[in-house]
Amino acid sequence: MKIKTIKIISAIGVFLLCFLTHFLYDLFPNFLFSIFFPVNESIFEHVKMIFTTFLLYSLIEYFLQTKYNLLDKNFLFNTLFTAISCIIIYLAIYLPIYYIFGENMVFTISWLFVSIIISEIISYYMYSLRKIKFDNLALPIIVFLYIIIGYLTYFPPKEDFFYDPKHHKYGINYKA
C-alpha cells in the first residue's frame, strides 16, 4: 500500500468518523468528553469535532503507515497541520455562506467532505518534508490547543461563533 492510498482511505475515514464524534458527548456526557467532542451545535463545537476527529483517526493511519513501513518522522506534526488546515479551509468558505444564507445541512456536510479531501492532499504533499523533524513541536501544541478548547467550552465568549442556535445557548451551560 502506498501513502497516496492511505491518504484516500484517511479522507473517507475522517469524514465518516465525524458522524460518530458529533454525538459522543450526547451519549457519554462527562467532563473529558466535553473537552474533545461537541457539546452543542455552535460553529466552534463543530471545529472542535473536526480537530478531534483528525487526531482520533490518526491512530488508524499510524497503524497503516507502520504496517506498510511508510511511517513518517513528522507523523504527529503532519496530523496536527492537516487538522488545522482542514478547519481553515472549511471556515473560509462555510462562514461567509452561513452568515449570508443561513444553515444548509447539504452544503455543510458536502463542504466538510471537500475540506477533508483538500487537507488530505496537503498532508500527502507534506509527507515529502521528511528531512525536517517537526514532531517535537506537535504534542505541546496539541495539549495547548485542548487547554484553550476546554476553557472555551466552559467559558465561551458571547459571540456568534460560540452560539448554539438550536438550543439558544453558549458553551456547555450558558443560556443566551
3D architecture notes:
The protein is mainly alpha-helical. The protein has one domain. Helices cover 71% and strands 3% of the residues. The chain contains six helices and three strands; from the N terminus they run H-H-H-H-H-H-E-E-E. Strands 1-2-3 form a three-stranded antiparallel sheet, with no helix packed on it. Strand 1 and strand 2 form a beta hairpin. Helix 1 packs across helix 5 (105-126) and helix 4 (75-101) runs antiparallel to helix 5 (105-126). The chain is globular and about 50 Å long.
Write the layout of secondary structure elements.
Layout: H1 3-27, H2 31-36, H3 43-67, H4 75-101, H5 105-126, H6 135-154, E1 163-164, E2 169-170, E3 174-175
Antiparallel strand pairs: 1-2, 2-3
Helix pairs in contact: 1-3, 1-5, 3-4, 4-5, 4-6
Features:
176 residues, mainly alpha, 71% helix
Précis, in short:
The chain has one domain (3-175). It has six helices and three strands; from the N terminus they run ααααααβββ. It has helices spanning 3-27, 31-36, 43-67, 75-101, 105-126, 135-154; strands at 163-164, 169-170, 174-175.
Q: Quick one: how many beta strands?
A: 3
How does the helix and strand content classify structurally? mainly alpha
Span between termini? 51 Å
Can you write the helix and strand succession as a string? HHHHHHEEE
Main-sheet strand order equals: 1-2-3
| Strand content bin | under 5%
Indicate the low-confidence ranges by residue numbers: none
Name the shape in a single word. globular
Q: Radius of gyration, Cα only, in angstroms? A: 17 Å
Largest sheet composition: 3 strands, antiparallel
Instruction: Quickly count the helices.
Output: 6
Number of domains: 1
Instruction: Give the fraction of residues assigned to helices.
Output: over 70%
| Mean of residue pLDDT values | 93
